[in-house]
Amino acid sequence: MPLSLKEFHHTYRSQIIDKWVDGLKEDAGPLYAARPREELEGTITEAFEANYHFLVEERMGPINRFIDKICKMRLETGFLLSDVQTAFEFYRIIVIPILAEQCTYRDFVQAVANINRCLAYTIRRFSEHFQDMHEKKILDHNRQLEDQVRARTKALQESELRYKILVEEIYDGYFVIRDQVIIFANRAFCQMHGYSLEEVLGKKIYDFLAPVDRKNVIDIYKKSVKHQPSPAIFEYMRLTKDGRAYPTEIRANIAAYDGQLSNIGICRDMTERVKMEKKFRESERMAYIGQITTSLSHEIRNPLSAIKMNLQILGKNPDIQGNDKRRVNISVRETTRLERILSQILDFAKPLQMIFSPIDLNDILTACRETLDVKFKEKRLMVTKTLDEAAPVFQGDAG
Asked: Which residues contact 160 (CB under 8 A, 6 or more apart)?
């Protein structure tokens, strides 16, 4: 019997999504490998559903909305266009071999043609949209820099004195470089590096760069002088007079200073920002550890309860006496202590998220009764089970 694309997607949904996520983590580049698996699972699930609507229902709305969302998401996190195109291609790589095994030749050819059409549309629209957004971001950034340079140049022309007072009062380091030599620096720049103004002027810029970033910053400087593409904003480690290094951000551009083209830059200390980012990452890590702790506590507590009940039953066996009886009692006591520790952990850990899937309530009730059967017998309780065989399967968290 032919397998339709609708039946195919329902049947192999979980398998396709899992393989897709595995492919991104292993073969789609370091940026994808660094993303949390939970995030990738959510994104790939959306992509799978969008492809389904395109292929089965011929609806382009979901795929268009997904492309808009993923463009913004990947552009903000620095993904390359080629990396995201590769991520889309994994769908075809995974699905076609499965179709080849499950479909007739005619159905296979038609399905592959539809998948190729879907991916061609997706990749073309994504590439165009991504490129447009990227170019707009660059243009906006360039306009901002041009506005800043024009404003500062105008201020220089209007009043050199007012300009120098303003520069001396700002908290960011302001400096001018020509031929890699610092020809002007404000008070904040000197303080950030631990030098006096006399010690700064006439020095090469690399004297203020930590060895780890020295080559990279000099390369950027040389490219900017030659009007080659180079970042206008970048981060590096600055070097102070006492030999310590601190994270710093520079905004730089070519502009006229004393009638000659020079590199004008503003450097800003990032030490506090880096500390805050580190604390934020640590809080995220602790939240994740809390989730794992909660999950493990739940998984351990159920079998631990079963062990405790069986030990208690074993302790009532009249054949167990003496040291054997004492060992059983010790085991029961230690098991109770472990249960108490797990309860304390659950009180402090974050609650688990609900994981929904199709479940049969009859199966769950039967499993619960089997788990508690020993306790029922211990308390001499008789349990009557009456189940509705027509009860529908519904979405819920079986755990």
From this structure: none
Tokens of 4: 């339709």
Say how many C-beta atoms besides its own lie within 10 A of residue 86's C-beta. Answer: 18
Give the gyration radius of the chain's Cα atoms.
33
How is residue 356 annotated by DSSP? -
pLDDT at residue 167, as a whole number: 56
Position 1 scores a pLDDT of: 39
Query: Distance (Å, rounded) from C-alpha 208 to C-alpha 225?
Result: 19
Contact (CB, 8 A) for 201 and 208: no
- 391 bridge partner residues: none
Token representation of residue 224: 């900017």
Closest among 175, 179, 241, 230 to 208, alpha carbons compared: 241
Question: Could you give the CA distance from residue 131 to residue 383 in angstroms, rounded to a whole number?
Answer: 67
Secondary structure tally for the chain: helices H, strands E: 15, 7
The crossing angle, in degrees rounded to 10, of helices 105-158 and 61-76 is 40
In the DSSP assignment, the letter for residue 205 is G
Strand ranges of the sheet holding 245-257, from the earlier edge strand across to the other edge: 181-185, 173-178, 260-269, 245-257, 233-239
Low-confidence spans in the chain with pLDDT less than 70 = 1-3, 134, 138, 141-142, 149, 153, 155-169, 290, 296, 298, 346-353, 371, 374, 399
